[in-house]
Amino acid sequence: MTLEYQDDSLTLHTDAYQLSMMQTYFMKNIHERKAVYELFFRKLPFKNGYAVFAGLERAVNYLKDLTFSKTDISYLRDTGQFDEAFLDYLTTWRFKGTIRAPREGEVIFNNEPIVQVEGTVFDAQLIETALLNIVNYQTLIATKAARMRYVVGNQTLLEFGTRRAQELDAAIWGTRAAYIGGFDATSNVRAGKIFNIPISGTHAHALVQIYRNDYEAFKAYAQTHHNVVFLVDTYDTLRSGVPAAIRVAKEMGDQINFIGVRIDSGDLAYISKGVRKMLDAAGFPDAKIVASNDLDETTITSLKMQDAKIDTWGIGTKLITAYDQPALGGVYKVVSVENETGEMVDTIKISGSAEKISNPGKKQVWRITRNKDGKSEGDYVALWDEDPRAVKGGLVMFHPVNTYVSKRVTDYKARPLLQDIFLDGKLVYDLPALEEIKAYAAEQIDALWLEYRRNLNPQEYPVDLSSKAWNHKMNLIRNVRNYVNEVGIEIDEHQGDYHA
Ligand SMILES: Nc1ncnc2c1ncn2[C@@H]1O[C@H](COP(=O)(O)OP(=O)(O)OP(=O)(O)O)[C@@H](O)[C@H]1O
Ligand SMILES: O=P(O)(O)OC[C@H]1O[C@H](OP(=O)(O)OP(=O)(O)O)[C@H](O)[C@@H]1O
Ligand SMILES: O=C(O)c1cccnc1
User: Domain of 235: which CATH number?
Assistant: First the structure.
């Protein structure tokens, strides 16, 4: 099949409603109005205590040189839904916005801006969908990977998920995110090529089935490879698989590097103990046992409690699809917009539930750490013109919803998380090497108190609004209430309803 329109750009990787709004802005001549949008999520994924920010590199690749290709314009024209003057404007349009974000690998939390877009309403609207698409998925997978890293300690984690991933892009960028979150290597060779992630793997049951015999298969494999891991569960792990692996390892001696065996079915605790005994008794105490089969952080924890003799974990489906929570609910909200007279006016979205009321105004996130040991005290979300480094007598941090909960922090460092990535459309950020990002993530996770790091029921990390940001929010809520009273019609409503 030949495509009618060449798929030669990512610019239309957006929801139709963005283009519909852009056309309105354009035709009403407000498309150059400035606005600030912020991307954040309201709930941490997997009930984890933190998330690992990933997706910046892909977002940068997407944003730089973002233009409407000829086929993009032809396609839009052929839909019959867009005005010719608008299409004409798109042909010369270039992204001119400012983007701020944390470094990839940064530990991030709910209810704080993690990407800030400042520019025209036109530009900011177009990129919403792709930014959410990228950051939601990659952050989700990096966080899932970090949970797995948490339970395995220093043991090796291999990413095996490509066959189960939600198509090609998810496999590739999910693998990269998993690497950032703590995986050591991947079975995806293309991810290895693109990102220089170490590739690793064993062999499949097919090899044994083709030879119809464990020994023959292992022997052939050993004669054609130096580093070998034999998959021993095709017929019977303890009776035929492991004995065949040991026989080949002995016969081949120094001609091969017998790394170990993989088991992929059955009771992994029970079987791994049997395998360990056999390998030790045969004089291979250093041979490793790799396990796979629908593993995740919960099964791994259980296997460890059962004293399973597993050294290396091969993990696919449950990592790459974020099986127990397949989406991160990141959202993108306008927080400030230029009015008719050129002034920036902060804006709020009201909701019946406190968590869903947006935090108005352009903000910075400050990570507050103790001077004495570098441990995190919390994040301080402040309006752009505030600087918590300059506060005398300590910083008062209070819970943004339960405002009666507060603490005073003294002798601290405040580090701004949102850094300039693009300024007025120009890339000003040097993307760090992947190894650096990975090491940074490990370091930042390590800097968290254990109470926030544990997988099960972690403590809630404090993400606090500055007093100024909080008061500002309350004022805007009051303004909206006045507005609704002024323009709102009377409705016969249930008396028990509350309003913000
Ligand atoms: N000792 C164990 N404790 C807890 N979970 C385990 C244990 N052993 C295996 N599992 C997990 O239980 C799930 C099902 O394992 P099961 O024994 O049914 O595999 P299997 O169905 O025999 O394998 P396959 O169908 O691939 O041949 C998998 O997620 C596996 O990782
Ligand atoms: O279980 P996962 O975490 O997704 O890890 C990847 C799985 O992929 C392979 O299985 P394969 O596709 O050959 O099928 P299988 O599940 O029947 O073993 C491998 O043997 C693992 O079991
Ligand atoms: O190398 C392996 O063992 C492997 C690779 C992909 C999926 N399952 C296993």
Answer: 3.20.20.70
| Ligand (nearest to CA of 301) | 1
Distance 258 CA to ligand 2 centre (A): 22
Residues with CB under 6 A from ligand 1: 265-269, 293-295, 299, 302-303, 306
- Torsion, CA 161, CA 152, CA 244, CA 189, rounded to 10: 30
User: 323: part of which helix (H) or strand (E)?
Assistant: none
pLDDT tens for residues 360-370? 999 999 999 98
* Whole-number Å distance between alpha carbons of 40 and 136: 10
Q: Is 308 part of a structural domain of the chain?
A: yes
Q: Is the pLDDT of residue 264 over 70?
A: yes
Q: Whose CA is nearest to atom 18 of ligand 1?
A: 266
Number of domains in the chain: 1
- Condensed to tens digits (0 to 9), the pLDDT of residues 44-98 reads 999 999 999 999 999 999 999 899 999 999 999 999 999 999 999 999 999 999 9
Question: Does residue 202 line the site of ligand 3, with CB under 6 A?
Answer: yes
| Interval between CA 293 and ligand 2 midpoint (Å) | 6
What is the extent of the structural domain holding 242?
Answer: 152-318
92 inside domain: no
Beta carbon of 260 within 6 Å of any ligand 3 atom: no
Q: What is the ipTM metric for this complex?
A: 0.96
Which atom of ligand 3 is found nearest the CA of 262? 3
In a domain, 251, yes or no: yes
Whether residue 383 is contained in a domain is answered as no
Q: Is the pLDDT of residue 498 over 70?
A: no
What are the C-alpha distances in Å from 257 to residues 187, 228, 260, 423, 450?
19, 6, 9, 52, 38
- What predicted TM-score, i.e. pTM, was given to this entire model? 0.96
Does residue 316 have its Cβ closer than 6 Å to ligand 3? yes
Q: CA 466, CA 456: separation in Å to the nearest integer?
A: 29
